[in-house]
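Before going further, learn to read the protein records used in this course. The integers have meaning only within a learned vocabulary of local backbone shapes. The record below shows the convention in full.
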Amino acid sequence: MNEGADDGGGAGGAARSPGCGPEGDGFVPSALGTREHWDAVYKRELQTFQEYGDTGEIWFGEESMTRLIRWMQKHKIPLDASVLDIGTGNGVFLAKFGFSDVTGIDYSPSAIQLSQNIIEKEGLSNIKLKVEDFLNPSTKLSGFHICIDKGTFDAISLNPDNAIEKRKQYVESLSRVLKVKGFFLITSCNWTKEELLDEFSEGFELFEELPTPKFSFGGRSGNSVAALVFQKT
């Protein structure tokens, strides 16, 4: 369930509900937040890859991958650091990542099968792929130095079935799988920096805000995407 920045392949096509009050949680429930939607998406993408070799969307674009890798290089993160990609989707990010101890998880079996096919095509053997629901992770999923999210938290926020509770489950799962002092890198098109700081205030502190594209409209400017690095306390 690695969600992207357009309505054809990810959560970015969903927008805030205009005029939604505090009790409304700020989001319109959407099929983009359901497992059924992503199972269908990745079944189609898997078939497309098998027929045409098309790997599908790169979530948030090439620059999003470069941004994360650049940050790790800047902070001299060891290449053997254990990395978890939460909602790996088609696995294209993992195939280009360059670290030696990488695990990609997704709750869609078709996504994991697609990732496996793409990674095998690239001739990579160091990447571990698992069907896992991050809201209910197995006990074997633990001890990571780095966790990465490129849209999965966005999609969870759109789930029609008690999204608030699912967001709390996400934070609890993140705390379980990430080592103390480990880093969590999140890219979001539905949440602002300030909102993410509030969502991850329990057990995490902001380490760094990463530069993202800006836009201007009506005399005001802002960021179309938020990219933050948290550290587990």
